[in-house]
Design brief:
Layout (H helix, E strand, L loop, with lengths): L1 E6 L7 H15 L3 E6 L3 E3 L2 E3 L16 E5 L7 E3 L2 E2 L8 E5 L7 H4 L6 E5 L2 H10 L5 E4 L14 E7 L5 H9 L3 H10 L10 H10 L3 H14 L1 H8 L20 H7 L1 H21 L4 E4 L14 E4 L4 H9 L1 E6 L10 H8 L3 E4 L12 E3 L5 H11 L19 H15 L1
Parallel strand pairs: 1-2, 1-5, 5-8, 8-9, 9-10, 11-12, 11-14, 12-13, 14-15, 15-16
Antiparallel strand pairs: 3-4, 6-7
Length: 420
Amino acid sequence: MKILFPTTRDLCYFSADFFAEQITRALKKQGVEVVRLPLPERIVDGKPVTPDFSPLERYEGQHFDAIIDINSKLPYLEAEPGVRYLDTFDAPFINIILDHPLYHHPGLAFHLKRYYTVTIDRRHNAFIEKYYPWIMQSFYLPLAGTLAPSFEERIPRLLFPGTFEPEHCLYEEAEKLPKWAFRIVRDLYGVWNPEKEPMEEAVAACLGSLSEERTGEILAYFKEHEWSVLAEAAGAGQSFPEGAEQNPLLSLSVFPVIMNYLYPLDRLTRFMMRKRVVTALAEACAALDIQGEGWEMTDVFNHVNVHSVPPMPIGPSIETMARYRAVLDINPNFFEGLHDRVSTALINGCLTFSNMSETTAPKSPLFRHYSSFDTDSLCEQVLRAQGEDFERAGEGTEDDYPLNWDEYAERIIAWITRLN
């Protein structure tokens, strides 16, 4: 088996290439020939610049059993007008989506001949299967946990690895949206509970309750700025979600575009949750260390029990995580997904607090579930654990942990084998 594995988009703390290297190493252990081709973004004046794709040319005409990328920009490329570049390889293209698909709609919208996706959330999977029917199959496979060197002495504190962005900055982003989109963000921000329903359900309910005037406003905007989308939605044979036949805003062509406009709602909500949880722990005098940029813009470090850990690339940050007895995960709105922070914390024997869905939570004695809407209970759990469970971190067995990278590679190989 031969796989081409470029990376065309960088992620927070250089994690795209890090994950790609973990997958590549595990695939090679299974005897797969992997051609790695990092095509990094450059940041100029604070904005990403399109990568140089010319290194791909040397692989044109070669046989590959699959092409894999993470949050890929490859679907945007054309070989010539009307011909997608990926289609010239005649290989299944697998786009590993590490966020909600709403962020990646422009890349998912291209009708490639052999387009597949991997998701880290069952609801993300369902969203792609429903709203992108040209994608031949989507596969739920959370990222594996990354094992770091073991440490005899653990830091007896709770580590939260996560960044922060202040509400006013994110709200300014939302205010730049079209008027209709900003009003939906304003309607749902602070009302949508991401632990009770995924964002698409909250948005669909909101759209279904809009007045005729507001519905007409959105349709008028689409007619002016997204005419091809609106025309497709109104065209013959267009299917609609159940019960939505009379509302074109919920059509399979229009709804994912609306979701893409509303990405500030996701960002506002995830950082609101982070601040709520971290502030509660700080005020409860929990021994808390924070690794991530942005928290200096809050007052959490005014509490003597809260310390700052310097941010660093994902590889060293995983080693930092493994030094702690306990790790706090604040789920980034993955309604039925598994955040890689949870996988990595557990596989390194850390007591792990997370507000992820209990339906997808790992069955580990080191896992502790909480709700970000019941921070009193979380604080009680953490303070109690500082004298009890922290001492027992690391007692789990391998059967309790999420996938390791070898197991992840085995599942990818089996899937590619079926695709061919």
